[in-house]
Each structure stands twice: as structure tokens, then as C-alpha cells.
């Protein structure tokens, strides 16, 4: 993956206005993946926390693929003023979203230079209309996913429609290291040495008068942003995960977050559907009414002084259910009900987990004697 020879940048006068205009590239290019090396403490999580400090609670929704239907109010001089409805209906925001296409060379978009920020009907118009420090915006979301964790796809904030990848957590399952800082991972995978400077040093360079010192800070963050893409390309994260998603029939993010049981259930569901069967989905009440297990297995510590002259079967979670249980521990009476019910002549109707099963009279007796 080659690095760009030049970059284009927007100059934004204040941090609140940067938070306001930050979702424009996502609305312009509509990416499926939002990648950050440490999403919880920096990157996208930091932007969401900063937006919350400026009372912009709709910021995660604007980053997502949901329609940014947000009613925006502004309190000024002890009076609440209705500013607008959403970003899409704003002429100024539409122009700025189109201008984001010029960030990538070769992308040509039509822009309307006649639009004036003062006529903006959304929050960026409020930022231009009132001086900083005299405004307080309040956002009322409509249709936001309810419940804790609703709409989350990998990040610490809800972002429906996009996959938020915390890259260092993904790399934990790929390589074995003592610590997973960006410098250590790049040295291991890309064989490059990455310098690390403190935030105070970077601020000193950027606030300096010399252009060369300011360039150091910009180059530092540009490199750390582009190296994420090189790491993804090095381990073939997108291609390999997409292939697994097609094979198992599950979503992209579930390949990275779910276990093997979820993949087995997906393959089982596809196989059952081809044979005109459906997998039951019991409710909470049905699960509560099912019978308790007859025995609970105990996990025992192995005896260190045990020596056996012969074959030894080592049972762990991965090899437990596909081999030992299916081959030895399941008897035919399991799929025909309990043995006590069969002995009392109640074999025609019995419970299988959360559901009831009925067998015509005489079928069970014939199968038991054959």
C-alpha cells in the first residue's frame, strides 16, 4: 500500500467548529469501516467524548449511516432558538460535504459557492451566527437505537451501519507480543522503527513560529494514521475476514467478535434450510419452562501423579462436543425422550429442550426392539 505524496488539509479556527464539520467526510464517502488504533482512549472515541463536552450528543449518529434527523436548538441570552432540522437539508452543509471530495486527487464534484454559512440551518450555522462561548446547543435525536450497546459494531459508541475497528485489539489475535503499542507492532510486522513523542512536545512544535517545527507534528500524525492501513494490508484483515463471512454466512464484524459456536450455528442453519428445516428460536418463557439438567459436570483438577500405560483422551472445550459427546455420551433415548417416560408408556409425546415433540403410537416401541 503506497503512501500519498501530498495531503490536503482544512484550516478550522476552533475546536468546536472542527467537531461540527468532522462528519462531513463520512457523509461524502460513506465508508464501511472506521479504523483507529486505540478507539477507546483516542481516535474516534476521543472525538465522541469531545463532542459530548460541547453538548453535541448527535455526533455518533452523524458518523453512522442513519439519517441525521436531528432537531437543533441554541440557547442565547436566556432564550432558546430553533436553528434547524438536519444536515442533509442544509445548503451550506451539502456544499461542504461535496467539497470533501476534493481531498482525494482525481475526484471532481460540483460545488455551489453561492451558499453562505450565515444562512445555514444546522449547527454549523449556529456556530457562525453566535460567538464562541455564548452559545449552548441542545440536540434531540429521533429514532436513535434504544438500550445500552444498541447499534454498536466494535466501538465504544453506537455507530449503526459502519464497523468500528480497534486495531490493537484485532492484532492481539494475530500476533503474540508482550505489549501492543503502535511502535512495537510496526517494528514486528513492518520492520520499521517509529518514534514516539509526548503530547507536550508535539504541542510545542505545532505552536512554534517555524513552519519546519509545525511540519513535524503534522507528519507525526499523518504517518500514524497511514500506518494503520499498512498494518491492515499486511495481515490481509479485510480480505480474509470477508472470505470467512461469505463461507460462514455471518456478518463481517461477527467474524472478529463471535466464537466458533456462532459459526457452527450459522452453517447448521444454512444446511437445515436446504433440507426444509428451521432452527427453533425459543423465547425467555420457553427457556424458563424447560426441565433442569439431570446432572451438572464438575471440572476437576488433574492428578499430577497419574501415569497410564495406554491411550489417554484429553478433553477441552474445543474437542468436547464434536467428538466425545456425539460419539459416546449421547444415546438414542436422548432424541426419544427420557427413559422413565418410555417405561410408563408415555413415549408418544415428550419434550425436546424447549419444544414438544410427538411420535405416532408404536414407532418408539418398534425402534427400541430393532
Read across the widest sheet, the strand sequence of neighbours is 3-2-4
Low-confidence stretches: 69-77, 79-85, 106-121, 123-149, 322-330
Mean pLDDT: 71
Structural class, please? mainly alpha
Largest sheet, in brief, is: 3 strands, antiparallel
Cα-atom radius of gyration: 29 Å
Distance between the termini: 66 Å
Helical residue percent? Answer: 40-55%
Question: Helix count, per DSSP?
Answer: 17
Number of strands: 7
N-to-C SSE series? HHEHHEEHHEEHHHHHHHHHHEEH
What share of residues are in beta strands? 5-15%
Give the overall silhouette: elongated
GO cellular component, one term: zeta DNA polymerase complex
GO molecular function: DNA binding; DNA-directed DNA polymerase activity; nucleotide binding
Pfam family, one: DNA_pol_B
Organism: Fasciolopsis buskii
Folded structure, characterized:
With 370 residues, the protein is mostly helical. Among the domains are: 15-173, no CATH class; 237-274, no CATH class; 321-370, no CATH class. It is 42% helix and 10% strand. It has 17 helices and seven strands. The protein has helices at residues 15-21, 24-29, 43-53, 59-63, 91-99, 123-129, 167-172, 182-189, 199-207, 211-234, 237-248, 252-257, 260-274, 284-289, 317-329, 339-343, 363-369; strands at 33-36, 69-75, 80-86, 136-141, 163-166, 349-352, 355-358. The protein has a three-stranded antiparallel beta sheet, covered by helices on one side. The chain has a two-stranded parallel ribbon with strand order 1-5. A hairpin with a 4-residue loop joins β2 and β3 (80-86). α9 crosses α10. The longest helix has 24 residues, at 211-234. It is elongated and about 95 Å long. The model is unreliable at 69-77, 79-85, 106-121, 123-149 and 322-330 (pLDDT under 50).
Amino acid at each position: 500500500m503506497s503512501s500519498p505524496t501530498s495531503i490536503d488539509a482544512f484550516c478550522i479556527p476552533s475546536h468546536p467548529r472542527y467537531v461540527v464539520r468532522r462528519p462531513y467526510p463520512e457523509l461524502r464517502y460513506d465508508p464501511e469501516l472506521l479504523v483507529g488504533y486505540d478507539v477507546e482512549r483516542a481516535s474516534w472515541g476521543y472525538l465522541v467524548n469531545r463532542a459530548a463536552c460541547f453538548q453535541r450528543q448527535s455526533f455518533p449518529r452523524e458518523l453512522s449511516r442513519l439519517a441525521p434527523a436531528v432537531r437543533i436548538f441554541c440557547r442565547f441570552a436566556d432564550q432558546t432558538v430553533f436553528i434547524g432540522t438536519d444536515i442533509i437539508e442544509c445548503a451550506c452543509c451539502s456544499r461542504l460535504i461535496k467539497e470533501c471530495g476534493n481531498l482525494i486527487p482525481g475526484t471532481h464534484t460540483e460545488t455551489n459557492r453561492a451558499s453562505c454559512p450565515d444562512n445555514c440551518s444546522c449547527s454549523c450555522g449556529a456556530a457562525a451566527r453566535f460567538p464562541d462561548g455564548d452559545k449552548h446547543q441542545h440536540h434531540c435525536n429521533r429514532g436513535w437505537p434504544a438500550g445500552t450497546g444498541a447499534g454498536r459494531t466494535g466501538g465504544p459508541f453506537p455507530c449503526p451501519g459502519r464497523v468500528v475497528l480497534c486495531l490493537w485489539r484485532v492484532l492481539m489475535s494475530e500476533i503474540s507480543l508482550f505489549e501492543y503499542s503502535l511502535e512495537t507492532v510496526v517494528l514486528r510486522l513492518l520492520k520499521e522503527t517509529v518514534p514516539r513523542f509526548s503530547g507536550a512536545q508535539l504541542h510545542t512544535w505545532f505552536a512554534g513560529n517555524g513552519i519546519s517545527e509545525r511540519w513535524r507534528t503534522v507528519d507525526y500524525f499523518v504517518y500514524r494514521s497511514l500506518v494503520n492501513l499498512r498494518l491492515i494490508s499486511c495481515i490481509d484483515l479485510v480480505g480474509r475476514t470477508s472470505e470467512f463471512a461469505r463461507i460462514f454466512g455471518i456478518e463481517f464484524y461477527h467474524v472478529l467478535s463471535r466464537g466458533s459456536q456462532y459459526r457452527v450455528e450459522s452453517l447448521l442453519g444454512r444446511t437445515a434450510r436446504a433440507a426444509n428445516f428451521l432452527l427453533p428460536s425459543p423465547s425467555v418463557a420457553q427457556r424458563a419452562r424447560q426441565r433442569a439438567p439431570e446432572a451438572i459436570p464438575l471440572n476437576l483438577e488433574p492428578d499430577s501423579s497419574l501415569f497410564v500405560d495406554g491411550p489417554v483422551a484429553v478433553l477441552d472445550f474445543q474437542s468436547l462436543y464434536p467428538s466425545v459427546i456425539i460419539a459416546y455420551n449421547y444415546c438414542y433415548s436422548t432424541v426419544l425422550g427420557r427413559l422413565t417416560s418410555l417405561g410408563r408408556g408415555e413415549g408418544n409425546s415428550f419434550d425436546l429442550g424447549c419444544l414438544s415433540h410427538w411420535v405416532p403410537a408404536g414407532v418408539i416401541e418398534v425402534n427400541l426392539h430393532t
